[in-house]
Amino acid sequence: MSMPMYSLEGKSLLITGGTGSFGKRFIKHALEHLRLKKLIVFSRDELKQFEMQQTPAFRSPVLRYFIGDVRDRDRLHRAFAGIDVVVHAAALKQVPAAEYNPFEAIKTNILGAENVITEAIDQGVERVIALSTDKAANPVNLYGATKLCSDKLFIAGNVYVSAERRTRLAVVRYGNVVGSRGSVIPFFLERRKTGVLPITDPRMTRFWITLEQGVEFVIDCLQRMQGGELFVPKIPSMNIMDLAQALAPECKTEIVGIRPGEKLHEVMVPDDDARHTLECSDRFIIMPQFSPFELAAWPGSKRCPDGFRYASDTNDRWLSRKELADMIAHLGLGAGGAA
Questions:
Q1: Distance spanning both ends of the chain, measured CA to CA
Q2: Which residues are catalytic?
Q3: What is the pLDDT of residues 263-288, one digit of tens each?
Q4: What is the mean pLDDT of residues 242-268?
């Protein structure tokens, strides 16, 4: 079998969590580069939707704005009518918030995922891709645990697609997004004014990706997915001390200790998943352990050896201070002396 490609041209696409950092960048990219028939922004925040509608970049005849929550299956049923593609980006993502409000995280991240899957299958949506997180790999906090459950629901959801249905579901997992809301970079840039940056642990490492890179990777996976894959991009790592020096070389650092639910290093392909993971030039693909479909071979891929682990501390690609400074300058975050 040859690798199938899926065209998004002329499709009706809905994105859940469309007013978040990823959602807005995805929508902007889609309006500029994809010739969609219809693009629906689905989210529960009416103010953010109103603000988007007032922004010239988000004014388009193909755009529709739907108020709704993924917890509400009836609303999803209505919103998914006539939709070809769903990008599921809605989630409760803040680790401390999930720890203090566990029932809420479960309702949105797990039960909401189930609702998206069920309605996508029932409405005959062709493709669904869900955004995951490195925190779902060997999770140590509730947020990661809920996203691991979500990942497994989306992958196993393919089994629930009957022979006459065409729905295919897959997952994309990646690390920290440069400049996204709540990430360490805007936090460090704000704390730079005090002259002291709090460091959890000087050994800490993280994967980094830009929003635009994340959007482009999700779109590419949408076009290539067959159903049941979990896609992981190959992206660079950076040590937290190098990050601090790149952002604010004039500041002192203060070691404050690792917070509850936080890892020293990030893992995106755990060693237990290596035996059914493929490595390509630009990504890893964790293949489903069972699939109702005949999956085509991924050209140029090779199987990862037993015991392989894709982690931020053993990564073979590292982000230099200059590369980070260039990223931040491109995003207009004002890193000052970051060079």
A1: 48
A2: 135
A3: 899 999 999 999 999 999 999 999 99
A4: 87
